[in-house]
Amino acid sequence: MAEKMTDAQWREFVSHGTRTAKLSTVRADGSPHVAPIWFLLDGDEVVFNTGKDTVKGRNIVRDGRIALCVDDDRPPYSFVVLRGRARVSEDLDEIRHWATRIGARYMGEERAEEFGARNGVPGELLVRVTVDRVLAERDVAN
Question: Which residues form the Pyridoxamine 5'-phosphate oxidase N-terminal domain (predicted)?
Fold first, then answer.
């Protein structure tokens, strides 16, 4: 039987290792767009970066409503769905700082600066999502 995760459990789950999130944004016609992202949890916010001219970047600038799904695809399966509103920043120092931290999580400390330099450039957005709703269940197959 699936169990609801506590606040501490879902935070640990989404921050574990190199789990990616599937980001859902709203297209101009109201249809969903889903893309995988690298991210970090910063208090009550999810932080990631994306290109300003990508589909997800344009969608977020136009309509900040998002949903993120982070899951473990191995038995007994667990998942966390986060919903909230996104805010964007084009401050290059802030973008580079977070791009470096995100690079460290996914590529290791030895490549963090490389990813910070690659993604901390004009045309990139820093996205912060204030988490409003959480659905988190573990051991769904038990």
Answer: 8-134
